[in-house]
Amino acid sequence: WGAAPFRDRTFDADAAVVASLAEAGAVLVAKLATVELAGGFGYNQPDAAWTGPGRNARDPERWAGGSSSGSGAAVAAGLVPFALGSETWGSITNPACLNGVVGVRPTYGLVSRRGAMALSWTMDKIGPLARSVAASRTVLAAIAGADPADQTTLLARPFRPDERRAGFRFALLRGAAAGVEPEVAANFQASLDLLATLGDVEEIDLPDLPYDEAAAIVIQAEAAAAFEELIEAGEPRRLTAPEDRYGLLEGLTVPAVDYLRALRVRRVAGRALDAALAPYDAIVAPTQPRVAPPLAEPFDAWAEGSETRSLGGAGNLCGLPAVTVPNGTGSLGLPTGLELMGRAGADGTVLAAAEAFERAHTEQPGNG
User: Fold this and answer.
1) CB distance 262 to 214 below 8 Å
2) Crossing angle for the helix pair 133-143 and 16-23, nearest 10 degrees?
3) How far apart are CA 324 and CA 343, in angstroms?
4) What is the DSSP letter of 116?
5) Residue 248's CB: how many other CB atoms inside 10 A?
6) Domain residue extents for the chain
7) Predicted confidence band at 7 (pLDDT cuts at 50, 70, 90)?
8) Cα torsion at 117, 119, 120, 124 (round to 10°)?
9) Which letter does DSSP use for residue 294 in this model?
10) Whole-angstrom Cα distance, residue 205 to residue 176?
11) Helical packing angle, 347-362 and 133-143, nearest 10°
């Protein structure tokens, strides 16, 4: 789990996703690095893990993203054809984007979390990172499905692939490129031009609701409950990042009334987003507003100044599926990404739209 207190922990059973992959013929070859405790407590530096900083496959002096750092870097470096990551808020899409690979955050409940570390019971999701959308779809199909040991999976719609190649309806998040780096903005505009060849693109606003604030409260409260034994044993002092040490304790101070209000916001937000996205196959935005930051610098201001975080907050709070696809590089050869997000249960449609974009992008001169 990337955290010193659990450094010597061993397990006597495979996680559901590992068992599903083994049944499908996959071979487990490595366990990859992660930010400590899935990055759920406010870390502000790339080396927030006892294993050290996750190094980017494109430039080892820059961050691999997180919290699924090793998954993004290993796939991008060609060490493995695919890897799994977990996402509560950005932990699949972030490292996938920064390393230049495909990352899939499935609808909440589509994939069993049995045997995986719990950070936020009502927001945790497990999904694949791979070098193509097709490979990601294959892995997702293998790990998706109902599991009585994770009752959230019993309510999810079955995963159904979508074979469309064009004729999509895209929503563009209004202001999505506000405050992003110039190279991110340029690649995003080029992506919009490509999307226009695949279907209709219409600019929209998300319903005006406190997605980020509600998501933060849910994570803080549920994570403190998940690691209550760690806190009571005084073990937070052994964590690497200073923010994580007191972030765990802060979660214990979240009033029950605030947590319950956040859950009510989620219900309202889920209905509002479903209605807003109903006319579209996917809503798009830059996956990250910046390219990968240097390892030597804290990144407290790295992801600020862009509405793309609102897409992540809304999507993760309400359990919506998303795919990040590489859409170019900047002046330093560092990857940027396009995020496509859809309605709950529309994983197949979002993947189809992402693959159509991927195909169009790689067919352009210089992008293959």
Assistant:
1) yes
2) 110
3) 15
4) S
5) 24
6) 4-208+263-362
7) confident
8) -50
9) B
10) 10
11) 160
Q: Rounded to whole angstroms, how far apart are CA atoms 180 and 188?
A: 10
Per the CB < 8 A criterion, the answer to whether 85 and 95 are in contact is: yes
Strands 125-130 and 199-204: unpaired
Quote the tokens at residue 105: 């955050």
Report d(CA 80, CA 77) in Å as an integer. Answer: 8
Beta carbons within 10 angstroms of residue 33's beta carbon: 22
Chain center to CA of 131: 16
Q: Is the dihedral of CA 106, 112, 118, 122 positive or negative?
A: positive
CATH number of 4-208+263-362: 3.90.1300.10
Phi, psi of 16 (to 5 degrees): -55, -40
- Measure Cα distances from 205 to 63, 310, 348 in Å: 31, 11, 24
* Tens-digit pLDDT profile for residues 261-317: 999 999 999 999 999 999 999 999 999 999 999 998 877 655 554 445 568 999 999
Specify the 3-state DSSP secondary structure of 199: strand
Instruction: Give the three-state DSSP class for 323.
Output: strand
Token output for 19:
């068992």
- At residue 14, the 3 state secondary structure works out as coil
Verify cis geometry, omega within 30 degrees of 0, for the bond prior to 67.
yes
Torsion of the alpha carbons at 218, 221, 222 and 225, rounded to the nearest 10: -170
d(CA 55, CA 93): 16
Return d(Cα 125, Cα 103) in angstroms, integer. 12
| Residue 68 token pair | 């699924």
Task: Extract the tokens encoding 230.
Answer: 């760690």
Q: Which of 78, 118, 116, 115 is nearest to 100 (CA)?
A: 78
Task: Strands of 195-240 (E only): list them.
Answer: 199-204
Q: Is the pLDDT of residue 331 over 90?
A: no
Nearest CA to 313 out of 103, 105, 117 is that of 105
Q: Residue 349's closest CA among 137, 84, 142?
A: 137
pTM: 0.94
Cα–Cα distance measured from residue 93 to residue 316, given in angstroms and rounded to the nearest whole number: 11
